[in-house]
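Lab notebook, bench 4. Still working through the backlog of constructs that have no structural model yet. Next entry is a single chain of 317 residues. Request: give me the structure tokens for it.
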Amino acid sequence: AVEFQLYIFTPILFALAWHLSRKGQSFQVTLVVLSSILWLVSVGARGIFAFPYVQSMQDGFYLPYASTVYRMAPYAAGLCGGIAVKEQASATWSFRSNVLQSILTFLSVLTLVIASLVGGEYMYAILVEKTSPTSRFVHVALILQCVLLRPCVGLAASFLLYLCAIDRAPRLQAFLGSCIWTPLAGLSYSMYLLQYCGMALLLLPIYEKFVANRLGSSAGTTLSVAFGMPVLVLLGTLPLALLNFLFVERAGSMLSKYFLSDKDKMTSGTDAKAAPWPPVTSESGPPQDASVTSESNHKSDSLQPQTSSPDTTPVCV
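Model written out:
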């Protein structure tokens, strides 16, 4: 539902950017400014929600996962990346500074590494509940990680994909373009849809029977369990995703192509009987319909003197 809301919101955002750009500013710059405002609004909303918990070091919190405002920052970052690729293709803007590119690339990779090491925004509540940090610095750092990680991951992914699109990151482009990712890309959406089924199938039973009672007060133990949990989710979801891809997603795609191909054949048959396009134009007048032009040519031919020619066609009695 959150994603669908953003899909619907995109034409409205583009219309607003077009309306504001009529006052002298370019459409692309206006759209980047609006996208940046959306990113800042999302970060601000996440910060406002988390700010009351800075004083309490014992209570964890969960950001509203199903709220569009809290999750639209990566969407805004993706819009900025798409605009940058479009501008690069039209040669109206180019990334000339290698130093700036190196700095932004380093920050993007560092952001993704941190996200891999410390987990998502739910890790804050897990660490607070299990370890109860006594250091104010650690507590504030965990809150900042919860507030900023998702928006910054969106920026990092958008920038790295932008570099690949403009051929400024050949090694990353070759790595992401490897054929090994093709089946994983095919299963990615099914994995996303069925992740909670995979959790209930494998993760939750193992966690409740073998892990929950053995968690101590050590942050290392909690992190070890946290790193193992995604593996269990993947193993539990993979068979379900494969079945969904083969019998629902892939089958539906092939079925739609079958019906669309029949529709195209019917349309092409109907179009073959229609008048040709573009209409025939005369040198001294506007475009004319093909039937009218054919009729006029027939009339003009009938006015010409007819010349006889020997009939060479054999006659059968």
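Notes after review: The radius of gyration is 31 Å. Confidence is low (pLDDT under 50) at residues 281-317. Flag for follow-up if needed.
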